[in-house]
Records
---
Amino acid sequence: MSSVPFDDFDSPRSGRHRSRGVNWEKWGWIYMRVSGVILLVLIFGHLFVNLMVGEGVKAIDFAFVGGKLSNPFWQVWDTLMLWLALIHGANGMRTLVNDYARGARSRAILKGSIFAAAAILIVLGTLVVFTFDPCPPVSAADAHLLPSFCPAP
C-alpha cells in the first residue's frame, strides 16, 4: 500500500502534477455554488412578488409585466437572474460534456454550441429587458391591456 496521500497532486510518486496558471475547474466549481445560492434568492423573490403579493397569479398580465420591466430595480433583478441562470446552466452542461463526450473534436463542438447558445440567449434576453416598451401603440379597443401609466391612445 502506498504512503502517498490520495489527493497529493504535487508528489513525484503520484504521477500527477498541478499545472501552473488559473485553475478554471476550481473557479467553475466555486461559481456554481455561489450562483446557486444567489439564484435561490432571486428566483424565490421573483416567485413571491409574482404569485403572492397583491392579487397573486390573477394579476399577471401585460400591464403587470410592463410595469415591472419599466422599473430599473426589476430590470436589474431580472437581468441578473437571466445571466446567472444561463451561465450556471451552460457551465453545468460544459461539465457534462467534459465527463461524457469521448472525442476531443466532439467535445469542442458541443462546448462551442453550448457557449454560442448561452451567449445568444444572454444577448437577446438582455435586449428584451432593457428595450421593452410597456406602452406600445394599440387600438382603442385594446387600451385596457396597457399599464395604468401609459397615455390613452
---
Amino acid sequence: MSIVIRDVREHELDSVLALNNAAGPTILPFDQARLRYFFETAEYFRVAERDGTLVGFMIGVGSQAGHDSSNFRWFSERYDRFFYIDRIVVASRRRGGGVGRAFYADAQSYAELRYPLLACEVFLDTANDPSLPDPALLFHGSFGFREVGQQVMPETGLRAAMLMKDMCSYPWVRDTYGTQLPDVPWLAPPRAAAPRALATGTGA
C-alpha cells in the first residue's frame, strides 16, 4: 500500500517517542517534555503511515525558530534564512522501503516555497564499517545535499556533517508572490504553530 504523509496527532506522541528512542546512535534521544514542545511549536511535524501503522516521523523548523540545538545554531551563524530538518526517524522494519524519500519529498515541497535553503546534518563515525561509504551521506547526496562543514556537538561529542540544499524554486516564488502565497489547499502550511524560545535540552 501507499505511504501517507500527514500531520502528527496528539494521541500519537507516545508512539513517536518510542520510535525516536529506538532509532539507534544516529538519532539523539528525547523525553516527553521535549516532544511536547515540538508538538506545540514545530513548524513541520509530520508522520508516515503505511498499512494503517505509524512507521516514521519528521520534525522541521524555520531559521526564525528559537531552537537550542547546537547544529541549528551552527547554521544560524552562517545563513540568514533556511528550513532545518531537526530529525527524521523511520521504523527499522521499514527502512529501505521509500519512507525516508517520501518524507524528504514532502519537506522539500513545503520548504521550497518559503525558504532558499534546506539544512540538516548527518552524524559521522556511527557506521558499522567505517571503510564503506556512509549510507546516510549517500542518501542525502542523492537528494542534492552538499556538505558545507562539520562540527563536533559540544553537548554530545558527536561529529556531524552539516548539509545544505539550494531550493531552486524559491527565488521565482519569492519574486512572483512575495510573502502572499495563493490561498489553495496544497499550499497550506502543515502546522500553524508559532515559534518561541526552546527550553534548554539535548537537540539534534
---
Amino acid sequence: MREAVYDNYFWQSDLVRLRAWSEEDWEWDYYTNFDTSAARLADYEINLPPTVLNSKKYSERIANLAINNCRIAFAIETLDGIHVGRINILLDDDENGTFGMGLKISSEHRGKGYGTSAMKILLKYGFMEKRLNKYSASVIEGNEGSIKMHKKLGCEQEGVLKQNIYTNGRYYAEIYFGLTKEDYLKIMV
C-alpha cells in the first residue's frame, strides 16, 4: 500500500489529523480510563475499573466510523502519527440542526492545542458540510480546560444549571455553551 498524501486533506489542521477509530485503538482507551479526574470532568462520574475486554468491545463498536448512538468517533493524531486523543461528533438532531461533541485528550498531551484543533475540524464539518446550525455543549464546573477551549472557539456561555451534577461527594454546576453557524462564520472562516 502506498503512503497517503495529506497536502489537501479536510480532516487535518496544522496540528492534528483525525482518522477513523480502529479496533486496535483499544489500548489507548484502556490506559486513559485510569485517569479518574479526567473521567469526572468528561463523563461527570467515575467509571468502574477498566478492563481490557471492555476497551476492546468499545473500540470494536465505534471502529471504522460506525454510528454508535448517533455518534461518530475519530482518533486524534499529531501530524507525526502520535495518538493523543479521541473526539466524537453527535449528530442526533437533524430536525433542529444541532450537534454536539465529546473530547478526550490523554493527560500527557493536554494543554498543547490538540483538542481545540480537533474541535475546529469537526465544527467546520458540522457547519459547512452537514448544514447544521448550532453546536451545543455542557461542561461541569471546575473543568477549566474545557471552559477555556469553548471560549477560545467562540462559544458563548448560554446558561448555568446550579448544583445539577453529583460526583465526588457534592453537587456541581453544569455550564452550557453554544455556537451558531452565523457566529462561527464571523469568527472562523
---
Amino acid sequence: MAVLAFDHAPVGLAVTRNRVIERCNARFCETFGYAEDELPQRSLAVLYPSQEEFLRIGEIGSRRMRETGRYADERIMQRRNGALFWCRVRGQSLTPDDPFARAVWSFADLSESRPVADLTARERQVAALLAEGQTNKEIARVLELSPRTAEAHRARLQAKLGARNTAELVARLTGLPL
C-alpha cells in the first residue's frame, strides 16, 4: 500500500540521500519536466535556478532540520526547460543526526496560483522570506544585509509585482486573492 501511495501521490515525492535523488514518483518528474528514468542518482541542484541558491537553501534547511527534523518553504524552482516556477517544498529527515543523509521530500507546483515575475536571485530570496511573514529587519538578519538594503529589495518587488503596499505584495507572493 505504501508503494501505491508514493507512486500515485498528487504531489511530487522524492527520497534523497545527501541531496541526491534516490527515488521519485511520476508527479515529481512531471512537475520538473523530466522523464521518470532521468532524475534518480542526480543531485537536487538541477532543480534550482542556480548553484548559489541550492547551496544557500541547503544551509538554511540543514540548520532547521537539525533542530526539528523537518523543513518547509515556498521557493522558486526550475524545470528542465529552464522555466522558473513557485514550489511548496516540505521535507522530513530520516536521519536526525545528519539531516540530509536520508530524507523524504514533497514538491507542490504553485504556478497556477502564483505566477513568477522576472526577479533577481536576491529578490527571490527576499520574496520567499516575505511570504514566510518575515519583517525587513528579520530578512536583513537572515540574508546578512542592512535593513535599508532589505527595504530597497522589498520596494523593488512591490514595483515589479504592481503592489501598493507590503500587505498587497505578500498577497501576490502567496497567491492569496486580492
